[in-house]
Write a structure and sequence with these properties.
The chain contains 3 helices and 8 strands; from the N terminus they run βαββββαββαβ. The protein is α+β, with helices and mostly antiparallel strands. Strands 1, 2, 3, 4, 5, 6, 7 and 8 form an 8-stranded antiparallel sheet that branches. The longest helix has 15 residues. The N and C termini lie close together (about 5 Å).
C-alpha cells in the first residue's frame, strides 16, 4: 500500500488513475453561502489529460446552487470530490463551474456510462459540474 501523498493531478501514477476508473460511489463537497460544507454522493469521472473531473446532476440541485453562488467570490467555487474503498482513498480538488452546453453534457454522460457501466436516463434538467483539478491526494 502506498503512503498518503499529493499526486500530480495532470500526470497521476497508474495505480491512482486505475482507482479513479474503478466503479466507486464518490462524494462532492461544496460550500454553502454561509461557508458550511454540503456533502452529497455523486458519480465522478476524472480526465487527467484535460485536468478535469466531471459530475452530472440536476440544474435545481443544492450543489449547483452552491457552485453558482460561490462563482461570484474572488476565489471561485472551490470543491472536492472523494472516493474511498477500504484503506484506499483519493481526493481531487479544484474550481468548479456549471456547464449547460449540450456537447459538454453529452460527453460527460458518455464518460459516466463508461465508468459506472450504465447510461443515465434522459433528463432535460441535466447540467454538468466541471472541476478544474489543481490538487490530487490519496492512498492507493
Amino acid at each position: 500500500m502506498a503512503t498518503q501523498s499529493r499526486r500530480d493531478p495532470r500526470n497521476p501514477e497508474d495505480a491512482y488513475l486505475a482507482f479513479w476508473r474503478e466503479r466507486h460511489l464518490c462524494t462532492l463537497t461544496t460550500l454553502r453561502p454561509d461557508g458550511t460544507p454540503h456533502v452529497v454522493p455523486v458519480g465522478v469521472t476524472y480526465d487527467p489529460e484535460a485536468g478535469l473531473a466531471r459530475v452530472i446532476t440536476r440544474r435545481g440541485s443544492t450543489k449547483v446552487a452552491n457552485v453558482l453562488a460561490a462563482a461570484e467570490r474572488p476565489e471561485g467555487a472551490r470543491v472536492a470530490v472523494c472516493q474511498v474503498d477500504g484503506r484506499r482513498w483519493a481526493t481531487l480538488e479544484g474550481r468548479a463551474t456549471v456547464r449547460t452546453d449540450p456537447e459538454a453534457i453529452a460527453d460527460a454522460v458518455a464518460r459516466y456510462a463508461e465508468r459506472y457501466l450504465r447510461t443515465p436516463r434522459p433528463n432535460p434538467e441535466r447540467v454538468l459540474i466541471e472541476i478544474a483539478v489543481d490538487r490530487a491526494l490519496g492512498t492507493v
